[in-house]
Amino acid sequence: MSRAFVREPEGGEAFEDLPDRPIPSDTNFVTPEGLARIEAQVARLEAELSGLSPEDKADHARVSRDLRYWSARKNSAQLVEAFDDDVVRFGATVTVLREDDTRQTFRIVGEDEADPAAGSISYVAPLARALTGKGVGDTVTVNGHDFEIAGIR
Question: Is the pLDDT of residue 93 over 90?
Fold first, then answer.
């Protein structure tokens, strides 16, 4: 059978050339918690990499790729400290009143920190961008839906 039809390359060479994870082009703003998570990822990956044997080519390629990504994110991180303000900014926890009178609360964080299911959205998300600079009582429209700012902390 031709080598072209064999699933695994001889010696695992393909694992050595995993493409790098794409790094977002926006400024890498992070909260103190976000920076701590990035630093923890780098430390975890460095430890994992040091524990791999040379025969673990696939794992070595994967961990090396992830370590390059998180190291780049750590090096480009711009820490944004807490603030006390009347307007929505990076790091703020915002409560909005939706059109159907339900309230939703979330924190505006960095791209690597965002977890909508856990109540955080990236500062580059359309809703976060629309709310930034606005105050309690202001209304924004995103994707045809209105959101009124009910609280900022």
Answer: yes
